[in-house]
Amino acid sequence: MKQKRSVVQMVSVAMLSSIAYLLMMLDFPFPGLPPFLKIDFSDIPALLAAIIFTPLAGVMVEAIKNILYYGIQGSLTGVPIGEMANFIAGCLFILPAAYLFRKHRTVKSLTTGLMLGVIVMTVIMSVLNYFIILPAYTWFLDYPAMSSEGMRKMIVTAILPFNIIKGIVVTIVCIPLFSRLKVWVFTKMKNA
Predict the structure, then answer these.
(1) Cα–Cα distance between 95 and 161 in angstroms, integer?
(2) Percent of the chain as helix, strand, coil, to the nearest 5
(3) pLDDT tens for each residue of 60-80
(4) SS3 label, residue 32
(5) Which residue among 31, 34, 97, 146 has its CA within the 20 to 30 Å range from the CA of 158?
(6) Which residues have a Cβ under 8 Å from the Cβ of 46 and sit 6 or more positions away?
(7) What are the CB-based long-range contacts (under 8 Å, 24+) for 112-115?
(8) 102-140 pLDDT, tens per residue?
């Protein structure tokens, strides 16, 4: 019985990863922000995996979707910097929601977790962009290094608002979707 559950979980993670990859392909820029910052809904399948199975399953969906994206689409830099940033941001977003929901099992706990995820993702990704991600992009693209002031301005005017907007938009889509799938999710959680 345990082996059957393990197979079901692996197949489900693979399926949710494929769906997440397809949703990642349907990205769109947000008006007023740089066009390379794009919103997508690929974190929703990862959140479902984290809720139904384990937080690790959600992390696996985040990892597989980004590996697929880099393997199929490639990267402007030749190195998966954007995909690594997407993986980290996705994990920071879904894990608080998954932990809170798995503990309390209410839509309120999911909403609270998603809002906490938005805050955690926004703060940590701002720091990572300042110290690692933006410098890596400039280095791999052979652009002149950004000044500290230039990076701060980029983070405050683009990265920070983008992460807040993306988190809120995904949360707004996720909550009604989850409300409609709640019975199915609880059934899957029992069988997982």
Answers:
(1) 21
(2) 80, 0, 15
(3) 999 999 999 999 999 888 899
(4) coil
(5) 97
(6) 16, 20, 58, 59, 61, 62, 65, 90, 94
(7) 114/167, 114/170, 114/171, 114/174, 114/175, 115/171
(8) 999 999 999 999 999 999 999 999 999 999 999 999 999
* Domain containing residue 139: CATH number: 1.10.1760.20
Q: Which two tokens stand for residue 133?
A: 């991600």
Whether the pTM exceeds 0.90: the reply is yes
CA distance 192 to 189: 5
Task: Say if residue 52's pLDDT is above 90.
Answer: yes
- Count of structural domains within the chain: 1
Range of the domain at 130: 2-191
